[in-house]
Amino acid sequence: MVAEDDEKQAELVRRYLEREGHAVRIVGDGLAVLDAVRHREPDLLVLDVMMPRADGLDVVRVLRSEDRELPVLMLTARSTEDDLLLGLDLGADDYMTKPYSPRELMARVRTLLRRTRRPATPEPVAEDPVLRVGELMIDPDRHEVSVGGRTVECTPGEFRILAALAAGPDRVFSRQRLLEELHGFDRYISARTVDVHVMNLRKKIERAPRRPERLLTIFGVGYKLTDPAKAAARRA
């Protein structure tokens, strides 16, 4: 679904997407986006920020409040870092600034779809791919996260950071190293982007986000993921 009130821009994006074999629906305002998604959720939403009736940021806010996992790629004429971080903080999965290259947009679409689509018939694996750190479980194949059996919904960016940390429990990862996991994002991405994702992850996996036990800050270095039970046993 392409949410864009500029008809020329919308048709340009439509043509490029259809060349890649996608079925495309154009929607021209924010409220219409919400109605359309609730009626039939698309595989991906290309969402302009500046739209009538409800802007793109409000649309993302509502979609995430409804626990929808729909991947969202935002398009905007705003190019400041604060705008980028706000979009990511609300739950956008990727962010491009206008003017943009249609070819780059198609590459971003392909990347998001690869990350969020489950294979129809998963290939057998020789070993268990699930990453476990105490009660925290991350399944890269199914793009699923759970804590103590409770399912946790993560954006693709959050998932990539969490999976990287879980692959090396108790290892400290620098912000720069974690930024490498977010290579599909906008060129305005910075270390603050990692901090935003970590803050959001703590809200989802910690009992007390302000006093984290799993996702820890190592001041001046970066972050690490640990098992609170093992950490308590070591202290004892």
Describe this structure as you would to a colleague.
The protein is α/β, with parallel strands linked by helices. The chain has two domains: 2-117, 3-Layer(aba) Sandwich (Rossmann fold); 131-234, Arc Repressor Mutant, subunit A. The protein has helices at residues 7-19, 30-39, 56-65, 81-90, 102-116, 156-166, 175-179, 191-205, 228-235, and strands at residues 2-3, 26-27, 45-48, 72-76, 94-97, 131-133, 136-139, 144-147, 150-152, 173-174, 215-218, 222-225. It has a five-stranded parallel β-sheet with strand order 2-1-3-4-5, with helices on both faces. The radius of gyration is 19 Å and the shape is elongated. The chain starts with a strand and ends with a helix.
Largest beta sheet: strand ordering: 2-1-3-4-5
Spatial gap, N to C terminus: 54 Å
Which regions have little confidence, pLDDT < 50, spanning 5+ residues?
119-126
Number of H- or I-type helical stretches = 9
Which CATH-level-2 architecture of the largest domain?
A: 3-Layer(aba) Sandwich
Question: How many beta-strand runs?
Answer: 12
In round numbers, the mean pLDDT is: 84
* Main sheet overview: 5 strands, parallel
Overall number of domains: 2
Question: How large a portion of the residues is in β-strands, by DSSP E?
Answer: 15-25%
Instruction: Fill in the CATH topology of the largest domain.
Output: Rossmann fold
Q: Over the alpha carbons, how many angstroms does the gyration radius reach?
A: 19 Å
The named CATH superfamily of the largest domain? Response regulator
**What would the principal axes of the Cα set say about the shape?**
elongated
Query: Would you tell me the structural class of the helices and strands?
Result: alpha/beta
Can you tell me the CATH class of the largest domain? Alpha Beta
Order of helices and strands: EHEHEHEHEHEEEEHEHHEEH
The percentage helix is 40-55%
